[in-house]
Amino acid sequence: MSTEPGTSPAPAPTPGQPHSPAHGSRIHGCLLGGALGDSLGYAVEFDSISAIRARFGPAGLQDFSALDAGSPFSDDTQMTLYTADGLLEALEWANDGVAADINACLWLAYLRWLGTQGVAVPASAPFQPPRWIDAQDVLKSRRSPGNACLSGLATGEMGTVKRPVNPDSKGCGSVMRSAPFGLIPHLEAETVYKLSADAASLTHGHPAARQSAGVFSLLIHALSSGHGLREAAEAALGQLLGGVLRKGENPDPDVVARLEAALRLAGDALGGGDVLSPEDLVGELGEGWVAEEALAVALYAVLATAPGTGTETGTADAVRAGADPAQAHFRAAIAVAVNHSGDSDSTASIAGNILGAFYGERCLPADWLAALQAPEVIRGMASKLATVTGA
Ligand SMILES: [Mg+2]
């Protein structure tokens, strides 16, 4: 059963202490939170930090209220919803007693997304029966989709780890769509990783792409299982280093280096240092156009702005002024994830997924939700996933 906003508020989490929102609220929070970050970031996706400051002032883009015309969600949210739908189809088959090929369900879902982008689905690809998501016209918009996502699917070949399409691609399109793999309860970590990495390989062949996607899904899985933010991030990285990879595959050194740097730099901020400037953020962790950089920037944004740390992020000031700590954290983290010269919508989408999975819906500011395009479509998919997973 899904949890609607406001009907069963989770207790306010104490920083560092466990809390436990209902799983349905985590699913809704993860998908809606990602859509909010994506939408705010999409307004400045291709802008440098100089251009962002020139348009919005020294602090950059902090809030939807600065956008007179609003901002729609982009391919990051579209593909995340199609990931959810591919998993949903596999779980529906399972509930009917049929063991469907989960990755084939993901491939069919992504092919149906490809059709929404004005790209002809190759004749060699199997027929994709339409589902609920395909009737949502708001998803049929082309909003700067990633090249590898388009080209990999347009081959009509089902990319695998062993037979990759786009063998050198490690764009962040593999990561930004992969939160839903972490939202299926009762799976072993190895299974979560494999589902996510195999689906990443449908479009991206570079090991960093599938490993970053897999670590992101493991992070969401750990959060959904009740772990704290840093604890979950360390656990997900530890699982990459310690056993989820298939035999003979080694952790990609760039993935490990970026994620270790994000954890270390966030630790510096938590220890009383300043949060990195937008310039230093991309200097240290990258601009986020490739998979491991997008995950690292998002992870840093979330960890370095946690409430109760005394940092100069705005979270502490907002809480002192009476703001809900979870919502103050969400606003501050998304601001860090949006305001830099890199791939703002993907880094903020991933950050929003993480915080929504951790806090559930309670971290989502009401005024931001009011500015979100087609929330009923995102809630609709979240409710379907919650129902089929028994949440
Ligand atoms: Mg995008």
Describe this structure in words.
By secondary structure, this protein is an all-alpha fold. It has 16 helices and no strands. It has one domain (about 25-390): ADP-ribosylglycohydrolase fold (Orthogonal Bundle). The termini are close together. Residues about 1-20 have low confidence and may be disordered. The structure holds magnesium ion.
Descriptive terms for the model:
391 residues, mainly alpha, ADP-ribosylglycohydrolase fold, 16 helices, 0% strand
Can you give me a brief rundown of this structure?
It is built from 16 helices and no strands. It is an all-alpha fold and 391 residues long.
Remind me, CATH topology? ADP-ribosylglycohydrolase fold
What is the β-strand count? 0
Question: Major beta sheet, specifics?
Answer: none
Query: What is the domain tally?
Result: 1
Task: Annotate the secondary structure layout.
Elements: H1 23-42, H2 49-56, H3 75-95, H4 102-116, H5 147-154, H6 189-200, H7 207-224, H8 229-241, H9 253-270, H10 278-285, H11 291-304, H12 315-320, H13 325-338, H14 344-359, H15 366-371, H16 375-388
Bound molecules: magnesium ion.
